[in-house]
Amino acid sequence: MPILTASRIAATQAVSYAALSLSCLPSFTHPPARQVIISFQLPLNHVFEYFRDRKALRRFPGMTPLAPFTNLPYMYHASRGRRYKAVHEAHQKYGPIVRVGPNSVSFNDVQAVRDIYGHGSAVRKDEFYDVLSGTHRHLADVADRDDHSRKRRVLAGAYSQAGLEHWEHIVADRTRALVQQYDRLCNRPVYQCTPHRDPHLNLEHVKGFINHRAWMGIFAEDAISQIGLSADLHMIEAGNDIVEVTALNGKTSRFSYREALWYSHRIQSPMVWSPKWFKTLAQWTSWHPWWRHNDNYTNMCVYFVQQRLKRYEAGEKLDDFYTYLLEDKYGSANFYPMGELVAECSIMCNAGSDTTGTALTNVLYWLIKNMETLTALRGEVDSVLEPGDSVAAYDRVKHLPYLRACLDESMRLTPPNTMNVPRLTPGEGIEIMGEWIPGHTTVHSPPYAMHRNAVIFPDPLAYRPERWLADNAKDLQPHFLTFSAGARSCIGRNITYLEQTVVWATLVHRYEFELLSAGWELSQREAFTCSPGDMPVKIWRREIPVGGE
Ligand code: HEM
Fold this sequence. Notes:
alpha+beta; five-stranded mixed beta sheet; 22 helices; binds protoporphyrin IX containing FE
C-alpha cells in the first residue's frame, strides 16, 4: 500500500476543506446561487477524490488527462462506438496498465487475465451488470457465486460438446434454408439495409449485391430461437427478421429483432460505464426513441417464453434449451419464476444471436480480402465434401483444422466481443500483475488490444490463420479473449463453433464471392458487442471440380 507523504497529506486536506465547505452550504443560500455552486461542487468533488487518491490509483497513467477524474471520456468514446479503439490506443501509448476512469483500470496482459478472470479469482461481476439487470438475474449477470453455479449446472448439458448432437439438425436445417435463399439471390441479388447501414454507401450503386451482414444476423437469430425455445420463426425463408409479438397489455406489434437488440444496446452502452449515474441518465433520456426498442426486446422475450410455456403445459415434448430450464434430468418440473425464465431467454436471444451473426459476417470479409486463404480453405473443405453436397455435414467438417483456424483468426482480429468485461475487486483487494488493487475497484482486460500484441501475434494486423496451426499454437490460447476466460467465460462457444463451422464449410464449398471494390472496407461499431456495418457482396455458384480435377 502507498505511504502518504506530508505534502500529499497537506494537498489532500486543502482540497478536502474546499469540498467540505461547499457541501455544508447554509440552507438559506439563494436557490439559483445554490445551483450554481452545486454545479461547481460536482467537478470539485472529482478533483478532491483525485488528490485524495484513497486507492492509490494515481500511479497509473490515465487513458486521457480527464479519465482519472471522471468516466466521461470513456462514455464519450463508447457513445461514438470506438471505446475499444481508444483503450487500445491508450495501452499502446502508456503501457499495459491504464486508468480508464476514476475507479476503473484496464490491464493488457495475460497475467492480468489470470488474476482477474481465472478460475479461483476472488473478483465478482461489476456493478455494470447490476444496473443492467431486470427483476431477475440471468446466467451472465448473476453475481452470486452459488446462484451462478446452480444456473450453470442446470444449463451445462444443453451447452456441452456432447449436447451438440441435439442441435446439429437445427443448424443443418437453417443452413439449408440459407442456401436456398442464396441460390435464389445468385440470379436476382437484392440489397437490403439493416440497422447497420453505412451512411456513406450509395445504395443505387450496390444493386446486384446481397447484404451478407443482414443474412448472417437473420441466420443467427433464427437458429438460436429454435435451439433455445423451439420457436420456428422461419425468418430466413421470409428474408427478414420481423417478429410479431403480443405484449402483456394485449397490444400486438411487429418489429425487427435485430433493431430491437441493436438500438437498446446503443442507448445503454455509453451510460452504463458510469453505473452510479445509469438510472439518472436513463431517466433524463427516457424521451429518446431508442428506448422503445428496449421495450420491444423485453416484450419479445416475454412473448417467446409464454409461447414456450403453453406448449409445455399442453404436454408437447420438445428438445431445446428450455427443456433443461423447465425440468430436471428426472423430468420433474423446476418451477422457476417467470421473471427468471424471461431473463434466461433475454441473454440467450441476445448473446446467442448478436455475437454469432457478427462472427459469421467478419469471416467472409477476411476471406475475400485474402483470396489465397479462401482458396486454401476451399481445398480443405472440398476434400471432405462431395460436389453435390448442398449443406456440409457437421461430422465431416468439425475437425478440419484450417477451417477452425480461419474462424479463430477472424475472431482474433475482429472479436465480436471487444468489450472489457468488467469485474469488481473483493473488499479486501487483490494483486493484479503484481500491483495491489484495493477493494471495490473495477478491473478488466481488453480483447481487442490483447489480440494485437505483436510479441504473441507477430504481424498482428495480418489475417493469417496459419498462426493457429503452428507448433506454439497452444500458447496463443490464453491470449485469445474472444470468449473471456475462467468460470464466467462463454458457455455458448460450442454452439457458435457448430454454427460457424457448418455455415462456412457450406458457403465456401458452394459460392464465389466479391466485394463492392478491392479497397472496400467493412465498418465496425461497438455498442456492447462490436458489430460490422452492412456488407454488400456479390455471390455466384462455383463450378466445383469433380474427383480432384
Ligand atoms: C462468437 C460468438 C460468441 C462470443 C464472441 C461470445 C462471447 C462471450 C463473452 C466474452 C462472455 C463473457 C461475458 C461477460 O463476462 O460479461 C460470454 C458469456 C456468455 N455467453 Fe457467449 N459468446 C458467443 C456466443 C454465444 C452463444 C451462441 C450463446 C448462447 C447460445 C452464448 C451465451 C453466453 C452466456 C449465457 C454467457 C454467460 C456465461 C456465464 O456467465 O456463465 N454466447 N460470451
